[in-house]
Amino acid sequence: MAEGIITAEVFRFNPEKDDNPNYVVYKVQSDKGISVLNLLSYIQLNLDRSLAYRNYFCHLGVCMSCLLHINGKNLRGCTKIIKPGDKIKIDPPKGYKVIRDLVVDFSTKKKS
Questions:
Q1: Alpha carbons 39 and 30: distance in angstroms, whole number
Q2: Dihedral of alpha carbons 25, 27, 32, 38, sign
Q3: In this structure, is the dihedral angle defined by the CA atoms of residues 9, 110, 112 and 16, taken in order, positive or negative?
Q4: % of the chain with per-residue pLDDT over 70
Q5: Where are the domains of the chain?
Q6: pLDDT of residue 87 exceeding 60
Q7: Is 40:90 a contact under the CB 8 Å cutoff?
Q8: Per-residue pLDDT at 1
Q9: Is CATH 3.10.20.30 what the domain over 5-109 is classified as, yes or no?
Q10: 33 near 109, Cβ under 8 Å?
Q11: pLDDT in tens, 41-83
Q12: What are phi and psi of 47, to 5 degrees?
């Protein structure tokens, strides 16, 4: 693993344009641990303006608007910290209809 680099494999899907989802790998330089939401913000602002994710969160870990499927588990993006050298896979939270990329419709839960 490269020190100072966080590698993020991010789910991408726009149902209006894409037939199937895919993943894009982003490499972000960081000398300290950051939250997954801060990582996504950096990617959206500096590497890929088209990335869609929920950028509102309460900063307290209670509102759940930042819920994401991170490395195989539904977790809060605001409280999950990743460190330089980490590799992370980010998907939309499981059980919800994808609106675009990491944004889901929380109003209805998909049937299992």
A1: 9
A2: negative
A3: negative
A4: 89
A5: 5-109
A6: yes
A7: yes
A8: 47
A9: yes
A10: no
A11: 999 999 999 999 988 766 666 677 889 999 999 999 999 999 9
A12: -120, -35
